[in-house]
Amino acid sequence: SLGSLIAWRGLGGGPYGGLRDGARAAGDRPSLRLRKGLVVTQLAVSVVLLTASGLLVKSLLNLERVDAGFEESNVLKARLDLDWSRYDTGEERARFYRSLLEEVAALPGVEGVTLSSRVPLDEGLYSGSLILEGEAPPPDEVRPQIGISIVGPRFFETLRVPMIDGRSLALNDDAKGTPVAVVSRSLAHRFWQGRSPVGRRISLDGGESWLDVVGVAGDVKQERLDADSEDELYLPVLQRPNLSSRILVRTAGPPLGLADAVRRVVQSIDPEQPVTDFASLASVRHASVAAPRQTVTLVGVFALLALVISATGMAGLLAFSVSQRVREIGVRIALGASRGSVLRMVLSQGLALVSGGTLLGIAGGALVSRALRGLLFQVAPNDPATLGTVAAMLLATAALACWAPAWRATHIEPMTALRND
Question: What is the pLDDT of residue 8?
Answer without folding.
Answer: 41
